[in-house]
Amino acid sequence: MAQHNLQFGKPRMGGNFNNENRRFGMGDNRNGGFRAGPRTNGTNDFIKNGKKPSVVAVLNKPQWDLTSLSPFSKNFYVPHSNIMSRSRQEVDDYRRNQQITVKGANMPNPIQFFEEANFPDYISNEIRRCGFANPTSIQAQGWPIALSGRDMVGIAQTGSGKTLAYILPATIHINHQERLRRGEGPIALILVPTRELAQQIQTVVRDFGSSSYLRHTCLFGGAPKGPQARDLERGVEIVIATPGRLIDFLERGTTNLRRCTYLVLDEADRMLDMGFEPQIRKIIEQIRPDRQTLMWSATWPKEVRNLAEEFLSDYIQVNIGSLQLSANHNILQIVDVCQEHEKEGKLSLLLQDITGEGDSKTIVFVGTKRKAESIAKIIRSCGFGAVCMHGDKSQQERDYVLREFRNGKSPILVATDVAARGLDVEGIKFVINFDYPNSSEDYIHRIGRTGRNQERGTSYAFFTPGNSRQARDLVSVLREANQSINPKLEEMARRGGNRGAYFAASAGGKWTNGPFNRRPPTAKTFGGTNNWGEAKRWTGAPTTHQVGMTRNRPSRFSNGDNFQNNPMQINTQQNGNGNYHFNQTQNGSPLFSTPPPAITGNSPNMTHFLQQPPPPPPQRTVTAPPPPPPNSNSNGVTKTPLLTLKDTCSIQGLAMMSGRSFNQPAFLNGTTHAPVQAVQL
Predict the structure, then answer these.
(1) 238 and 214 Cβ atoms separated by less than 8 Å
(2) What Cα–Cα distance (Å) separates residue 660 from each residue in 60, 144, 655, 674?
(3) Is-contact 649 381, C-beta < 8 A?
(4) What residue stretches are annotated with the Helicase C-terminal domain (predicted)?
């Protein structure tokens, strides 16, 4: 093989290496071996911001002559009589109620019911089979525009039903074109940023295109090219593809886009964020200029606007909801301001509450691949079904993970941001941001995995002082969605994200300067709760739960206007015999109707984290003092280790973690032990 003067990596096999201006980098599994990035000048210079060089496929731009192109039809809209009879005031009132904002010339009125779309029977039957009641806002306004053959920009939050907003018009568009012959390229092309989104769109195409016998394929990296190439060679009407893998097939000559007349850019803002703009431009250059183009995005940044102005003609812009960055209002958002070392214990308590909600799925978002594997392993060791997904997973592993998560065998998915966009799984009730993302935009896309299709959902976020720079943006997102705001978060936002300040619960709500993890030497923790400050959780549970340990504990997974100054906490007090007992309080009131019994002894299986109190110091003599007891500092003060998620799950037999009364037997490490008679810290 010829030697290539490359900065890093080896060229992929099978590519065209004759052009000396091409730079081959490490293959990107998600996008067919092409690493996204900006356009280069052929000098092999590294990209700014520390990114590796990108690979931009070299494709000759066709010289389009509209006079020689075969004509095609793209206007199939027949307005319903009900739509024509509505007054301008009625139309404006409907758009206002549905939070629809439109911009453009000669825009059609929205439909309010499915029958007003005048869909053909093969589509109407599928809609009735799915049991949809009424179209969503983006569908109501988007279908008349798309069926009219107009270019369109749709800006809507995740879970708004935008996939059907362009799939159903695409099906009608294809059925009005000449039949595709073997070897010809697709009629409809849908570009997406990730393989997961591509597969989900293919599922929708399969459901709504089967009755009209439309052929389709899905092109993405990380999967064998052979089956994808065979589909393209046989001919498919619809192609759903990531930019890199599609460019690979275009350059090899496996397919072409000469027959493409319907182009969709889904999650355009995400594709630009990932650096796919050069690939998108190369692909659009291969499509005839009189095509119909629909661009969909959750946000409307300058980069997306520039792309729309360049490649869309006389387009109509449709905004659903606020024109600013906004979250789905069907999602209850809970933000817990805490310390980094408290998150595992809080996650354990949270998962216990969630599992009591019945058959519901949960996504736990973390910041790194290594942490995703670690958290998933610990959750499984606690008896919960959990799977893990991140960028290093192969396509077979991803398919297995999604299959286990969809069918409910593993109701908890631990994932990095690879699953934040486009993942559409039914039954996701909870989203937990174990690690808060780097931007509010990513936060909105994360929590958008729940609350889809007009369903209700709940999101939970652990917000630490290390995330303080995002406090103001997060408060803005919460206010726009009419959510209750944690006072600690508001104070952090007012402080301007000062990373040197820490809201210490022990200071009675005051801000104290100092290291984030500073704790008094005598602090004791149990299950993520300490006796020197708040329990770092806040709840909307009624006070009727405050009687008796065997009663249901207040839910930690709720939100309301009741951010307590002194939420439920667990303290330990020393009795006259030198032993410790629990005194659980809420807002200063005892949780017990009667004091707990005086108990002695301890469980042999908990000695690795529950310790005997240190013996009294010996009388001062001329001899050297004895060494400090194990697990203590140089002053002889016992240091109680923090409980991790694994430790918390291993003591679920205790009354404090499972709601069991003190005189019931504990089930630890697979063995039933005698009733717990004392717990000494």
Answers:
(1) yes
(2) 72, 59, 4, 14
(3) yes
(4) 333-493
